[in-house]
Predict the 3D structure of the following.
Amino acid sequence: MPEILSLNNVTFSYTPENQELRNAVENVSFAVQEGEWIAIVGHNGSGKSTIAKLMNGLLFPQQGDVRILREVLNEDNLWECRSQMGMVFQNPDNQFVGATVQDDVAFALENNGIPFEEMVKRVHAALEQVKMSNFVDHEPHHLSGGQKQRVAIAGALALKPKLLILDEATSMLDPQGRVEVLQTVQTLRAETGLTVLSITHDLEEAMLADRILFMNDGKKFAEGSPAEIFSLGDKLTELGLDLPFAMKLSKLLQKEGVPLMGQHMTEEELVNDLWTSNFNK
Amino acid sequence: MDIKLQQVSYAYSQGTPFEKRALFDVNFEIPSHTYQAIIGHTGSGKSTILQHFNALLKPTTGIVQLGDRTVEAGKKAKDLKAVRQRVGIVFQFPEHQLFEETVLKDIMFGPMNFGVSATEAEARARELVRLVGLPENVLEKSPFDLSGGQMRRVAIAGVLAMEPEVIVLDEPTAGLDPRGQKEIMEMFYTLHQERNLTTILVTHSMEDAARYADNLIIMHEGKNVLSGTPREIFKDIETLKQFRLEPPRIVRFQQKVEKMINTSLAKVCLTEEELAIEMARLLREERAES
């Protein structure tokens, strides 16, 4: 699988002159392969957002390098590299410029000098992909949070990026909006093999990824499949995160003396174990 | 101080072509010292309601009673400053409102505006900074050198420094990591109990509403449609669906399990801890019977 993006021994400090303060990111390496879904998790201040800024060249590392399609990101190829990445940010209200949904999706295409005919095609295709075709002429401000984020995803997709980056894109949404956005991303991946990198502290969201990168105090604390990461158990809570719902509940049930065979990652597994261990007699 | 809304409606940009009605005939009462959660789908009118609690917005029609002050449509309300000191609102992303050179000055700004002496304001700031879980040495720092989570706490301390009787929280944990979310919610709950406050939480999180509130007020399309204790409200999933809401995950889990074992637990459990205890109790009883 071709590599889309990699960080190689990256170190970054916002205050390089002050040696007493810790680096925001310290010696971090990881790679994203085409078609993968990677989640970066960690507490506030663990370095997640700094990594996002290093990936799209808003910041440059003091040590190590960032490579996009195996090419080292620098001042000269910055714009070329950015065009490979679509980003969706946390606050849906801060990323709209167009007066209608279709104007908004077209904005970046226009900036990139895409011919009109092609633009129309791409706008409609992108809105179709996020199931917002019925809203082309709506004002973005009258949409729900989940709909806004889907339009923002369409705006990113219209540029045909190699990588979609979701920077806490669901953290301000209501539960329904969150489900909407995550389902959209899952469908997109199933249909187009889109590569996704999501930065989040919602572990239920991280569970959908193929691989999780767990950041703590600027360093990579662990990297692995969701099962591997969640087997860290209490370490997760100690470092500011939470356990997935089913795991937390399995633990509490066992503490109260309810017999179970193990701790479970999904609700399904827990319900089944509860049945087999207690009622199926 | 009790808060009472009577037939309150509100229209944005009234009298212009952009007029948009956000509230229609809203009626409810919030008794002193209770913990209320206002929940509703995006666009249901939650944020418009909350701005009525300290008269930032005045109703287009109807009456808002804030303690002994009345804010009535079409009439000039007097002495709103006193009301604004008694009702503190923590808006979404309150850290965006920090502006002073130091944390200490920022926390002192509110109370001093309301005539509190500098000595008293500083004493409050020193106490509050510890209460919101920050080390005392942040007081001399610029608020802009702090992390997002720390800035949020400073902003909250600034609201608490006015010693409000009623505290209104608009999605106070948005954007915080899980530990930060829990710490902030627990802090508000402790304050609520220790200082005998009236707390009004506006939230998307059914989990927080279930865990902390005495009473829920459900908003839908600009009206208050339902009110009751979390246990009453969350047991009726069908009604909630009409308002595009879902009960907390733990309640849905309980229903799934009850269906599977064909037995009901003694009550609707609002937290994971409660469910674990009830489940253990049920199993003990079954064992005792067999």
Chain A has a mean pLDDT of 90. Chain A is about 40% helix and 20% strand. The radius of gyration of chain A is 21 Å. Chain A touches chain B through 36 residues (CB under 8 Å).
